[in-house]
Amino acid sequence: MIIGYARVSTVDQNTAVQFEAFMRAGVSNIYEEKRSAVKRRPVLEEVLSRVGPGDVLVVYKMDRLARSLSHLLEVLALLEARGASFRSLTETIDTHSAAGRLFLQMLGSFAEFERSLIRERCMAGQAAARARGQTWGRPRAMPKEVESEVVSLYATGMFTMQVLAEVYGVTKEAVKRSIYRVTRPDSPCLR
User: Fold this and answer.
1) Are 63 and 103 within one domain?
2) Residue 77 confidence (pLDDT) above 80
3) Known catalytic residues?
């Protein structure tokens, strides 16, 4: 039996391109999963539990199946142990032959190497941005320069958080966060 496995990372994404490729290749028994490769994938687990001797597991691209070379080799070993084989439609890989298995392992190695390089570049870029003083996320409602003033006024007991919020044109929650940030600067929830 030829079994197709289509996967996209999020529910918003579409597997239509993969399904069209499967139809052109004559694959009619297709399983679809909409989950990230780093999460547990119950559909893939079901497919792997059903695969048997003579079956062929077909994917659109190799990265739709495995998240790393070690995971890919694990899946391939399972398929081989069950007498099944693997085929990728876009990389023209077929594990029926020794050359196909070798090529698959080489591609997996290059893909894992590329992911490592991308991760290293992203981390280096983030470190450089932090060194330049760049921040991420939504800007604070209460400017940092005003926070100590707000805390001092609140500490006098003459102003409530609601009054301070109205005076500074922010929400009561923004005043509360500012007070907490100034009075507990080492709190892990403020990092």
Assistant:
1) yes
2) yes
3) 9
